[in-house]
Design a protein that fits this description.
- The chain has helices spanning 20-30, 44-57, 72-88, 108-125, 142-151, 162-167, 176-183, 210-230, 259-274, and strands spanning 6-12, 34-38, 60-66, 97-100, 129-132, 157-159, 186-190, 233-238.
- It is an alpha/beta fold.
- Strands 1-2-3-4-5-6-7-8 form an 8-stranded parallel β-barrel, surrounded by 5 helices.
- Helix 1 (20-30) runs parallel beside helix 2, helix 3 packs parallel to helix 4 (108-125) and helix 5 (142-151) packs across helix 7 (176-183).
- It is globular, with a radius of gyration of 18 Å.
- The protein starts with 5 loop residues before the first strand and ends with a helix.
Length: 275
Amino acid sequence: MNKTYELIVLATNWGFEGTTDQFCAAAKKEGYDGIEIWWPGDDQKAQQELFAALEKHNLQVGFLCAGWQTDPREHFNTFRSAVDAASENRFRKPLYVNCHSGKDFFSFDQNRMFIEHTIAQSKKTGIPICHETHRGRMMFAANICRQFIEKLPELKLTFDVSHWCNVHESLLADQQETVSMALDKVEHIHARIGHAEGPQVNDPRAPEWNEAVSQHFGWWDKVVDRKKKTGERMTFLTEFGPADYMPTLPYTRQALSDQWAINVHMMQLLRKRYQ
């Protein structure tokens, strides 16, 4: 292992009920290195609260950025503004910027401009800017992602393979070459366990999910092995979500498992395996 290799595990505020300071305090108490959070945009108060909490609790940060409009040009303008602001902010240099990029119904060329901009912005700032393999976005399916990899070799990915398991209704045994190509482009990982019928198992500690858990770690192992050999930073986000990502009981919508406890469990597994 190259001695400059570094493992950083981050917490998500998705589903957390409380202030930014309370979230950062809870993440620090559990032993996380930092947090991943949506870039606050032009909300100066939210920015101040976020950066004050990061400083107070000595946490690192990765930012999420996206657009939402159905018109590709409007969508791109919103996306570009967020990515540029997050990567050039004067308060705290992020570990990375993770992008929910484009839309699944945009054309290849319409989505391509998102990648081309982030490649240029990453070179300008020195910050990794990655495109997440997320349903509804440009990287929603393995075969579609492959087209971008082949045409844009400088592409960097946030690997949330749980989405692909859901989209392709499998653990991707029939697309091993494509998945391998994607793994070579991965800079950041969202550590959620998906399965053939959904993006999130109800509890990865349950024995019925052993095959899915093993397969996900098998994919992640390959990325970490590369990072260890090259002596690079490896960032993970533990990202099991709340209802309705978390399966619930009918009528009451009571979550079947404890989201926070599962994410802490995943963080501990990652540290044990990859430290």
